[in-house]
């Protein structure tokens, strides 16, 4: 058992230490900047007909859409941060889920901006309508995440002591986080290779960017659902408090709603995401009220 714990500590230090996070941030941001200019150059080469491609894509028609590529790398860093904060703060871990899905919508806005059809028939054009849904949805999500973080910070401020049982729970979350790094790296690599191969062999038959916005992230949120369920089950060993069980269960439902949004399109997709974050905010708000009342009851019963 001691050897296993030493291995976990060693791997955790390599994958999820503050030093690794800082290095990862610098590398990802550098790649994001370089990729932006490469995408821009590719667009101009296509427009100047220096390059001729066997397909058409919104990502190659307008320089604005070049912002899509660096946002993709920023999302990769956000996925890493989600895993990084998993052992440290459960509410920050959930917040990162909401930030990731919001950034996916923002990234999609850059892609859709290049294909907007500015006309008096705005609300009759499917692409323009989707842009409107995503624009309003991203604004609402931004505000809801702000409120969620406020509730999360309040919870952290109230928690002055870390009990022994909580430390044990944190050590188990470190094991899960350490295992997630190679798993998600493998998933990302497999997704990229699979997309590249399908693009290479079928470039004349289909649009290789047709479902690129959901690429990797639909599977990623499926993994998060499993992780959330595992965390809920492990937490039952350390607490039987009703409000904490409901909070953790509510966050699972929120993640499931986000995952469901990848299976639909149009207004329904945006509505599902907003409802997911609104439900998570409601859960943590009621949980904090519940905990505050319990704390007041405990103080009243003291001699």
**Which stretches are low in confidence, meaning pLDDT under 50 for 5 or more residues running?**
204-210
For the sheet with most strands, the description reads: none
SSE pattern, N- to C-terminal: HHHHHHHHH
DSSP, total strands: 0
Helix content bin: over 70%
Q: Give the structural class.
A: mainly alpha
The number of helical segments is 9
Give the SSE layout.
Elements: H1 2-16, H2 18-47, H3 68-85, H4 90-113, H5 126-158, H6 164-202, H7 217-235, H8 242-261, H9 267-301
Helix pairs in contact: 1-2, 1-6, 2-3, 3-4, 4-5, 5-9, 6-7, 7-8, 8-9
In short:
This protein is mostly helical. The protein has helices at residues 2-16, 18-47, 68-85, 90-113, 126-158, 164-202, 217-235, 242-261, 267-301. Helix 1 (2-16) crosses helix 2.
Characterise this structure.
- The protein is mainly α and 303 residues long.
- Helices cover 77% and strands 0% of the residues.
- The protein is built from 9 helices and no strands.
- It has helices at 2-16, 18-47, 68-85, 90-113, 126-158, 164-202, 217-235, 242-261, 267-301.
- Helix 1 packs across helix 6 and helix 2 (18-47) runs antiparallel to helix 3.
- The longest helix is centred in the middle third of the chain and has 39 residues, at 164-202.
- The radius of gyration is 22 Å and the shape is globular.
- The relative contact order is 0.10.
Key features?
single chain; 303 residues; mainly alpha; 0% strand; globular
